[in-house]
From TrEMBL:
This is Glutamate--tRNA ligase. Residues 10-316 form the Glutamyl/glutaminyl-tRNA synthetase class Ib catalytic domain. Catalyzes the attachment of glutamate to tRNA(Glu) in a two-step reaction: glutamate is first activated by ATP to form Glu-AMP and then transferred to the acceptor end of tRNA(Glu). The gene is gltX. Residues 119-143 are annotated as: Disordered. Gene3D superfamilies: 1.10.10.350, HUPs. It is found in: Cytoplasm. InterPro entries: aa-tRNA-synth_I_cd-bd (IPR045462), aa-tRNA-synth_I_codon-bd_sub2 (IPR020751), aa-tRNA-synth_I_CS (IPR001412), aa_tRNA-synth_I_cd-bd_sf (IPR008925), Glu-tRNA-ligase_bac/mito (IPR004527), Glu/Gln-tRNA-synth (IPR000924), Glu/Gln-tRNA-synth_Ib_cat-dom (IPR020058), GluQ/Sye (IPR049940). ATP binds at residue 251. Belongs to the class-I aminoacyl-tRNA synthetase family. Glutamate--tRNA ligase type 1 subfamily.
Length: 473
């Protein structure tokens, strides 16, 4: 583990921008920051970076909070909001101006665009050309009247910024590759890269774990932090999550709010387990508890390569957690989802008995609901699908005999299974020839739990009535 022995307490942070929902990538960043803090008996801070006033919304803030709450990623401090710290940022900008580490730039956006266009045409690096940057012996232009300036950070023009990344190892970037970053807009609003530096310093953040799309920001932030006299945190940049096709994760792959995964029937512990494995490993362990994750999590096993999101793997993990979940929790969720779907479970078999039968087949709570609903709805049988099944040699006669045999059979799974086997033997049929039309008549679909278990739950009267109706079609 790469931790600085001088550090008293590990402090990590998750700092989302409230311009949208909490998606998988953000949730994984939050998880890794949380797990690292918990592993090191440190503190996890939530900070909302809401300086993008035009795009930040209260709804997006709430979506972030809802996502964190569903995943049960509890934070020790926060949420802090950057817009509530504006006075502090402005004071720090004034400090840099006084020290000569920042300066006023009066270039208009049009002038900056023209500057970039000329650089593009001549094949130069696109950057601010330093028109208003003060240098020894340099005479600056006269500030134009009526133009509000931006504030630019005076980035060092020589030297190298180097840090030992928790994930990627040593990284070095020449200062010559960076221009003078705007740290305050014309209206005086501080910019993202400046606010982040002040917050990380004053909140005593020791470890910054974030996506590797921030790598280019890191040397700029390190330089600003040095100019302010702050202590540099340890950075770790995790690769992005790719879709199953190897492309950047998008909505078609599942880049949606993590709360939507709750709606789609995933358990939070399953999502935590799955997200943890998207870029981190502990040997060959695929399934583990939160407690094990905290015990095992450090930076040594964070992957340097991008992880691929696999919806089927997520379902596999979720199915495991569903089978391990307390029955009371599953029953409560199942009842709620049935109610929302307009399914009345009061008339029919005990919901707990239905749960025992359908749980073995379900990989999501939504699938669990759909499977359970079969026992409380009158099926809509597709006659065009059923007819050719009944026309198969011996099938109609076998079903009629089977329905008659139900009058005298003991009503339990074992006896019903025995009657099914005896019927197909008597008529020289294979199991699917009898089971497929039977499933269709009883439930309206051909893929169900074991047919003997289905019949046992539906009850004798319902089973015989539906078979009789199916044979009349």
């Amino acid at each position: 583990m790469s931790t600085d022995p001088k550090i008293r307490t590990v402090r990590t942070r998750f700092a989302p921008s409230p311009t949208g929902y909490l998606h998988l990538g953000g949730a994984r960043t939050a998880l890794y920051s949380w797990a690292f803090a918990r592993h090191n008996k440190g503190q996890f801070i939530l900070r909302v970076e809401d300086t993008d006033v035009e795009r930040s919304t209260p709804e997006a803030v709430q979506a972030i909070m809802d996502g964190m709450a569903w995943l049960n990623l509890e934070y020790d401090e926060g949420p802090y909001f950057q817009m509530q710290r504006m006075d502090r940022y402005r004071a720090m900008i004034d400090k840099l101006l006084e020290k000569g580490e920042a300066y006023l730039c009066y270039c208009s956006q049009e002038e900056v665009n023209q500057m970039r266009e000329k650089q593009r045409e001549s094949g130069q690096r696109i950057r601010y050309d330093g028109t208003w940057r003060p240098e020894p012996g340099k005479v600056l232009p006269t500030p134009p009247a009526g133009v509000a300036p931006v504030v630019r950070f005076k980035n060092p023009s020589t030297g190298v910024v180097t840090w030992d990344d928790l994930v990627k190892g040593p990284i070095s970037i020449n200062n010559e590759e960076m221009d003078d970053l705007i740290i305050a807009r014309q209206d005086g609003t501080p910019t993202y890269n400046f606010c982040v530096v002040v917050d990380d310093w004053e909140m005593e953040i020791t470890h910054v774990i974030r996506g590797d799309d921030h790598i280019n920001n890191t040397p700029r932030q390190i330089n600003i932090l040095k100019a302010l006299g702050g202590e540099q945190p340890i950075y770790g940049h995790i690769p992005m999550i790719l879709g199953p096709d190897g492309e950047k994760l998008s909505k078609r792959h599942g880049a949606v709010s993590v709360v939507q995964y709750h709606e789609e029937g995933f358990l939070p512990d399953a999502m935590i387990n799955y997200l943890a494995r998207l870029g981190w490993s502990h040997g060959d362990d695929e399934l583990f508890s939160r407690e094990q994750l905290i015990q095992w999590f450090d930076s040594t096993n964070l992957s340097k390569s991008a992880a691929q999101f696999d919806p089927e793997k997520l379902k596999w993990v979720n199915a495991h957690y569903m089978k391990q979940a307390p029955k009371e929790l599953l029953l409560s969720d199942l009842q709620s989802r049935l109610n929302k779907a307009g399914v009345d479970s009061a008339e029919g078999p005990e919901l707990g008995d239905v749960l025992d039968v359908v749980l073995e087949r379900a990989s999501t709570l939504v699938q669990l609901r759909d499977e359970a609903a079969l026992f409380y709805r009158v099926p809509q049988v597709n006659g065009e699908e059923l007819a050719p099944m009944l026309e198969e040699a011996g099938v109609r006669a076998a079903l009629a005999e089977f329905n008659e045999g139900l009058n005298s059979v003991e009503w339990n799974v074992e006896a019903l299974n025995g009657l099914v086997k005896a019927t197909i033997k008597n008529h020289g049929l294979k199991m699917p020839k009898l089971a497929m039309p039977l499933r269709l008549m009883l439930t309206g679909i051909t893929q169900t739990p074991s047919i003997d278990k289905v019949m046992n739950l539906l009850g004798k009267h319902t089973v015989q009535t539906r078979i009789a109706q199916g044979l009349q079609s």
